[in-house]
Amino acid sequence: xxxxxxxxxxxxxxxxxxxxxxxxxxxxxxxxxxxxxxxxxxxxxxxxxxxxxxxxxxxxxxxxxxxxxxxxxxxxxxxxxxxxxxxxxxxxxxxxxxxxxxxxxxxxxxxxxxxxxxxxxxxxxxxxxxxxxxxxxxxxxxxxxxxxxxxxxxxxxxxxxxxxxxxxxxxxxxxxxxxxxxxxxxxxxxxxxxxxxxxxxxxxxxxxxxxxxxxxxxxxxxxxxxxxxxxxxxxxxxxxxxxxxxxxxxxxxxxxxxxxxxxxxxxxxxxxxxxxxxxxxxxxxxxxxxxxxxxxxxxxxxxxxxxxxxxxxxxxxxxxxxxxxxxxxxxxxxxxxxxxxxxxxxxxxxxxxxxxxxxxxxxxxxxxxxxxxxxxxxxxxxxxxxxxxxxxxxxxxxxxxxxxxxxxxxxxxxxxxxxxxxx
Length: 423
Description:
The structure is a single chain. This protein is of the alpha+beta class. It has helices spanning 8-14, 36-45, 70-82, 139-151, 169-182, 193-199, 210-216, 219-225, 258-265, 271-274, 284-294, 316-342, 348-360, 365-371, 378-390, 413-419, and strands at 23-26, 49-53, 55-58, 61-64, 94-100, 103-110, 127-130, 133-136, 203-204, 207-208, 234-235, 250-251, 299-302, 307-310, 363-364, 394-395, 408-411. The protein has a four-stranded mixed beta sheet. The protein has a three-stranded antiparallel beta sheet with strand order 15-17-16. Strand 13 (299-302) and strand 14 form a beta hairpin. Helix 12 packs across helix 16 and helix 13 crosses helix 16 (413-419). The radius of gyration is 24 Å and the shape is globular.
């Protein structure tokens, strides 16, 4: 979903936050930087984004220096993208000029292309967006882009005759609540529903897009325009249908839309803004159980076309010892004594809330504090998070012990037992 409008105030606000995957600044004081074409390729191949000329970045800080010859820079940039010689397909960006503190700043919105992959020179120069940086796509990712092109851009199309009134209000409301909890600084959180939906392209000029309809639409409206819509999830007790003793042990009831399907299984998300994608569809309870029984961390690897979950196979002795000794003795004694003492003075409900979210997904200290409704401050980290680490309820992943506030935290086996009431 692309945001093709940006006011001067929104531009300034974005310059206070570097964690954007659809926003890139370039100095371009006297000429365009060579790496701008990598960003054009990346935005075209993903969900689009803004390239801003006249801003210098140093670390986490931005300095507005302006563009000296704005007319020539704008003309050269637009002509290069539109003449079909630099890139394999023509690109038609939208340009906007801003005057900030007496400096000329140029911003160009690069749309998501329906003709993926977009590259310059030759296919090796195909780039995608990885966080807030550009990255050269590998062969599998290029193949995924080609597959996406075959499906077209139907999700971005508006449906004539529909409106925001056709959305399930409860679905939209609960999604916005998730944003407040997991991404409290999101730039559109304070907008009313109509403006919010326009910015996220749930609606386009008042009409629902197919993406917005499938995400939040009322059941009857979804079935009217997408009669084959169905999200299915079943749990099979075995490695295959053939090996299973039962056909299945659980099947998710039919849901009205994609967001309601997430709410039903708590393993999906409305993708990058709610910050829940790391765990989508993986069966977190079983992974935590594996870690609890074996002491081996479950490892996740994801990219734009697939996700891989790796279970480390322990030796026989470690499983036996973990089950008979660690679970029996450590949980009984350590949880009863050490945990109770270490978290004394911390609000019990806050502790449960922290453990509850980490039982679903890994999260940073900032995300945890936002979820429990307190500000991101050193005092609150010491009050609500550090005691849980000291008690062994939560920890940083074994391969990433940096004590960095941006590092994710995970729940431990001890934390699971505490959460389940075995204090």
